[in-house]
Design goal:
Distance between the termini of chain A: 31 Å
Order of helices and strands of chain A: HEEHHHHHHHHHHHHH
Structural class of chain B: mainly alpha
Largest interface: A-B, 88 and 94 residues
Strand content of chain A: under 5%
CATH topology of chain B: MetI-like fold
Structural class of chain A: mainly alpha
Oligomer: heterodimer
Radius of gyration of chain B: 24 Å
Largest sheet of chain B: none
Helix content of chain A: over 70%
Number of helices of chain B: 14
Number of strands of chain B: 0
CATH superfamily of chain B: MetI-like
Number of domains of chain B: 1
CATH class of chain B: Mainly Alpha
Order of helices and strands of chain B: HHHHHHHHHHHHHH
Helix content of chain B: over 70%
């Protein structure tokens, strides 16, 4: 299989033939990929150094980047985004791991029933899910104020989405319900793949179920955990639709996220260059977060 | 058979799980029942847990808008994205997995890196590009970037690793050309993978609200997600109408999900296997 020896003329011709046919197979995908992913990525990076709007296009060096860190709303948006990520990522991971470890041993139909239920908000779609939550959070006709009022937990109706203290937590709650679906599916399958004979051997040796979990299952599902951490981080950083549909970043920028602010700058104020510079920073932050997760998880794995 | 012990922890876990299940199902229940409640019931501070006097009024008002056209747009867009993604990704994944060619490692690394980047960051340049190509406000502005996203290639590469090299070798010795080897040997083996990718792409495209929002403007070009968002923006407290829209958006996609659930689960898990 592995031909690492010096290629002869025949082999060279073979490699050339393979290369040509491989690229013919790759061509359609490459056209779409280069045209609609790579080109915009490069444009994003390049135009972040320009004062770029509907009418202007002038090189300004790093001034978009400098402006960003003097922009109070951007700083606020950055703080909110990081709050969302720091809360959502651990909660989603722990929650889905717990749910999965309870359901994965149940019989097939029950397990897929629960898996479906947790996946349902993802399939239903952000918009449909969000509008119903908006109604439930409504101050006058919403369920939350009614239920909490009836049970005596709150005395007066709360404007959940209109109050700086509660709005971002409402958004995080909805984000959680739409984020656990995929991790649950992944964990159920990962836990199902854990080598059963190892577990039995450990039980024979008198290991407690806690020891079985941490010493045997946890290391084996580590790659899955890592993948879940990374995708949940990316998704949480990109939280946009919830904000746009529920609060538009308000009240008083208390739910402003970077993604929403980019949208606002680019599509309401037409400041494309500035928006792209923020996009570049967002991409860098996500890359750093992912790298840290790989490092930490990799160390635990040894 | 091992006997199953009932411990207090297991009972507690069961109860919590049941509560969570209700919590996750409830929004859908509230959409469906809300869509058939009268305005008076909806605007009452005391909620009616079950619609006592169901009405079709909300749906009638919903269809005063081009809601069916929006639904059609969503379906057309998702189906076209799905077909294009499956064809291009199956070919590319096969080549990446089974051919030894110059530039293979680099190309695969680029695909992986691009996948780790946030998709939404490139939306601004993408919009400019679509305007430049005169595709803005057409469904192609949504379809083309969806097809370009490298996840499909990655997934199909994972599935194509299962094609036995000897089979391909045998076909070549029998004188089958490249195209025939692909369609007759490789395709049948990676078929389940294509099924997974198809349903995955369909649901993702259907739900990619942000991309649709930026690319589509005219009222007749909207998707069902955009349509509901628009209704919500225009009449924010007419919850009956909005729930009817949400139901129209949710029911088809949930039905598709339930029908093809098996493929879908496989797609999600295969995509996560380390590559």
């Amino acid at each position: 299989m592995n031909k690492r020896m010096k290629p002869t003329g025949m082999q060279k011709a073979l490699i050339r033939r393979e290369t040509i046919s491989a690229y013919l197979f790759l061509l359609p995908a490459l056209i779409f990929f280069v045209g609609f992913v790579i080109v915009p990525m490069v444009m994003c990076l390049v135009t972040s150094f320009f004062n770029y709007s509907m009418t202007e296009f002038a090189f300004v060096g790093f001034s978009n980047y400098v402006e960003m860190f003097q922009d109070e709303i951007f700083i606020k948006a950055l703080q909110n985004t990081i709050l969302i990520v720091v809360v959502a990522v651990p909660v989603v991971t722990v929650f889905s791991l717990w749910v999965s470890s309870v359901i994965y041993k149940m019989n097939g139909a029950v397990c897929s029933f629960f898996r479906c239920i947790f996946y349902l908000p993802v399939v239903t779609g952000t918009v449909a899910v969000t509008v119903v939550w908006k109604w439930m959070f409504n101050k006058y006709t919403g369920l939350f104020n009614y239920v909490l009022g009836e049970t005596g937990i709150i005395d007066s109706d709360i404007s959940w989405l209109g109050d700086e203290r509660t709005a971002i937590w409402c958004i995080i709650l909805i984000l959680l319900t739409t984020s656990v679906g995929q991790p649950v599916v992944l964990y159920v399958s990962a836990l199902g793949n854990v080598d059963e004979s190892l577990i039995e051997a450990a039980q024979v040796d008198g290991a407690t179920s806690r020891q079985v979990f941490w010493k045997i299952k946890w290391p084996q599902i580590m790659p899955t955990t890592l993948y879940i951490l990374v995708i949940t981080t990316i998704n949480s950083f990109q939280c946009y639709a919830l904000i746009q549909l529920l609060t538009s970043g308000g009240p008083n920028h208390s739910t402003e996220t970077i993604m929403y602010y980019i949208y606002y700058q680019a599509f309401k104020l037409y400041r494309y260059g500035y928006g792209n510079a923020m996009g570049v920073i967002l991409a860098i932050i996500i890359a750093v977060f992912s790298a840290v997760q790989f490092k930490v998880a990799g160390r635990n794995n040894d | 058979m091992r006997k199953i012990k009932v411990t207090p922890y297991k009972i507690l876990a069961g109860v919590i799980l049941a509560v969570l299940a209700v919590f996750f199902l409830f929004p859908l229940y509230w959409i469906l029942t809300g869509s058939v409640k009268t305005a008076a019931v909806i605007n009452d501070a005391v909620p009616q847990w079950f619609p006592m006097s169901p009405t079709m009024d909300n749906y009638e008002r919903l269809f005063d808008n081009p809601a069916l056209l929006w639904l059609f747009n969503s379906v057309a867009m998702a189906v076209l994205s799905m077909i294009l993604t499956c064809v291009t990704a199956a070919m590319a994944g096969y080549a990446l997995a089974k051919k030894r060619f110059i530039g293979r490692t680099i190309l695969f690394s680029i695909f992986i890196c691009a996948m780790a980047l946030p998709k939404q960051v490139i939306l601004i340049p993408l919009l400019r590009e679509m305007s430049f190509l005169h595709l803005h406000d057409t469904m192609w502005a949504v379809i083309l970037p969806t097809v370009g996203w490298p996840f499909g290639v990655f997934l199909m590469k994972q599935f194509s690793e299962n094609i036995p090299g000897e089979l391909l070798e045998a076909a070549r010795i029998d004188g089958a050309g490249e195209a025939r080897t692909f369609t007759e040997i490789a395709l049948p083996i990676i078929k389940p993978g294509i099924g997974a990718l198809a349903i995955f792409t369909f649901i993702n495209c259907w739900n990619d609200y942000f991309l649709q929002l930026i690319m589509l403007n005219s009222r007749t070009k909207l998707t069902i997600s955009l349509g509901i968002a628009k209704l919500q923006a225009e009449m924010s407290t007419d919850f009956g109408l909005i729930m009817a829209g949400a139901a129209l958006a949710a029911v088809p996609i949930i039905t598709i999900f339930l029908l093809f659930q098996k493929y879908f689960t496989r797609g999600i898990t295969m995509g996560a296997v380390k590559g």
